[in-house]
Amino acid sequence: MDVGKSCCINETDSNANSGSDLFTQQAYVGLKGAFGQIALGRQHAPGHLSELYDALPDMAVSPQKRLAELANLTIVSEDLARWNNAIGYTGEFETLGVSAIYSAGNLETNQAHGISRTDDDKYGLGLYYENGPLKVGAIYHAVKYKAQYDGVWNKNPAGENETQKEWLLGATYDFGFATLAGSWQQGRDVLGVSGFDVHLWQIGLIIPVVGEDTLNLAYGQTKLDGGNAIMGDGGSVKPKSLGVAYLHPLSKRTTVYAAYTWIDHDDLHWNQATALGQDDNGHAGDSKVGDTNLFYLGLNHQF
């Protein structure tokens, strides 16, 4: 059960045929052996493992998840990092892991204001190191867009075919009394818009409390920079987010939790949010997106 009050942006695409893939899980066949695993089908891209460096892994209150999805980055733990019609490889070799994927996709859709997108050419690579209390990783994604957004500010279509390029560096260290986690990521030519860049960093702590209970908290900030078709004047805004959760395991597979997240959208206007593919919910385009405050009470069961 989620209980909250928000003026936040909808987490859906603009067209009915491009709804959320949140509950569309992996479906693949493959071969697995000492060499690793090769698989065909819908499967996780390397960006899914960004959760390894998040103090609120795979949770709706995670600043990394919230800010990455706001900016249309695909290095995130959930649906944007599950790719269709893909061939993927994963392998683990003592302390080192590797993940690679190429996706032919199945998406042909127009997002808000004429962003024309296909996902028939995207690929990713991840390298992961784990030794005792230390985890370190690097992830790269590339997603091709076939045309640039022709927005309300840019009356003449640029007709560019830009590739959205992303990378993330992350690490965690378990000190015993607490685990420190953090990551830094960047996206260039996001949404296929030349010059529209995104910078995102986040840091957090996992603190043992009583028994197996933990207090998890994280803070993050992103910078949406340049790209007249999105930002209008080529300027920048810096949305930021704070997330906190108290987790109480009932068993190995079931956890109850209470959580809170806050998002400050800085000077982001609704016409800019719409250019990012979000629903304006009837707000005036020149008005600012307000702060978001969400409270959660929930139960998580791993099937």
Automatic annotation (TrEMBL):
UniProt membrane topology term: Multi-pass membrane protein
Compartment(s) of residence: Cell outer membrane
SUPFAM superfamilies per the UniProt record, alphabetical: Porins
Keyword rRNA-binding found: no
InterPro entries referenced in this protein's UniProt entry, alphabetically: Gram-neg_bact_OMP (IPR050298), Gram_neg_porin_domain (IPR033900), Porin_dom_sf (IPR023614)
Pfam family, one: Porin_4
Top-level taxonomic group: Bacteria
Record's keyword terms, sorted: Cell outer membrane, Ion transport, Membrane, Porin, Signal, Transmembrane, Transmembrane beta strand, Transport
Recorded coiled-coil stretches: none
Domain Porin span(s) in chain numbering: 14-267
Quaternary structure annotation from Swiss-Prot or TrEMBL: Homotrimer.
Protein name: Porin
Source organism: Tepidiphilus baoligensis
Taxonomic path: Bacteria, Pseudomonadati, Pseudomonadota, Hydrogenophilia, Hydrogenophilales
